[in-house]
Amino acid sequence: MVTTQDFQNALNGVYYTLGSYRFLGRDVLAIGDAPTDITSHSVATSHFYDIFRYQILDTNSYIEEIWAYGYWAIDRCARIIKEGASFKEVTKGDLTEVEGCIAQAYAIKALCSFYLTNMFGLPYSEANKTTLGIVNVTEPVPAYSQVSRVSVEQNYSLILDDITKAKEYYAKEGVENVGKQYMNTAAVAALEARVKLYMKNYEGAITAAQEAITLSGGTIVSTKEDYKNMYTTLAVSTEDIFFIAKAEDDYLSANALNTLWNKYGLSINSATIAEYSSNDIRLALLGGTWTGGKMRGITTNNQISNLPVFRLPEMYLIQAEAYAKQSTPDYGKAKEKLLEVAAKRNPDLDDSEIAEDQTIIDVIDKERKLELVQEGHRFFDARRLGKIISVADGSYTNFNIAKFVYPIPSFEVNSGFGVIQTEGWSDNLPR
Fold first, then answer.
1. pTM of the full structure
2. Side-chain-side CA neighbours of residue 233 (13 Å)
């Protein structure tokens, strides 16, 4: 007989998979920064150097890990959801505990699907939405089953459906919210805001981001000390919405995102650092001699930090971009939301220099780049925004990153269970 504890145990397994270094514990966040215009690589080690240099094969281990662990997390969520649908415990307390697990399972399933879609499919647009994305999973897939990739539009449709179901389960009577190290109600809204921004559903993004802001109950810090503490301690910060939690005695060595940024060769390049104002509080971590930046670790263990997935500043910047790009732009609102972040980070900011016209879009884009650095956003932002960028320390210039997708891992394609390779994916590598 299945018990409520079985559901909690299963959900713990999902979070373990999600936070593994093979997914959000390192690989996904690293791949969101390493192959972009904001990074350098010293070749101190070979870790992520092939990704940085776009020396990519369909046997790349990082790509294999992200695909496998993303789908393992999705499958485990699907099993919780399916089993929960037929759960018949007697007491209401038991049922609400299970419904809380189902809410989180739907949310994590949507989150993983979103990352996989944006790695292995083209960025969402009218032109791209009919192209191949990933395999949609609506229920557990039996072993040796035939599956197939569906369109990017179908992937996004399922992601939004899972977000809606997560909200519905959280709204059930007696279901309790969870902490910021879990996919809580604010995190579900934050995911919806990010998804709708990527879809250019600007009105929807504004509404969802406001829901996340309200539910999080947080504030944005404005001092160097508070900013440093967000990344150099394991305390929950006022900006956190959802993060991958670490423990002080986690010694992950080569498998830590911190190690990659601290001594394995990856760093934010000097051109990006130069874009910060000299008194910007973010330079408390990013300025001077490079020591890992945000990922320098805590005082007693430089291998670990809580790894941010959703933070409050992103929500304000989503709103700023959406107000500036909606069908009838509201540049005044866009500026207001931008300043919620920019004015608190840069005490020297002269907001009179920010015009309330379409030029504010470039200011918002720059602020996203500077605020979300090292948090795995730049690759996905550059693609959805159609940026033409220089990558691999300037080895490749004028790279149209929006045309690039990662290959489906060869082990999946060669398994014979129906997943086909993206035709011509290597034609869009930088040259």
1. 0.97
2. 11
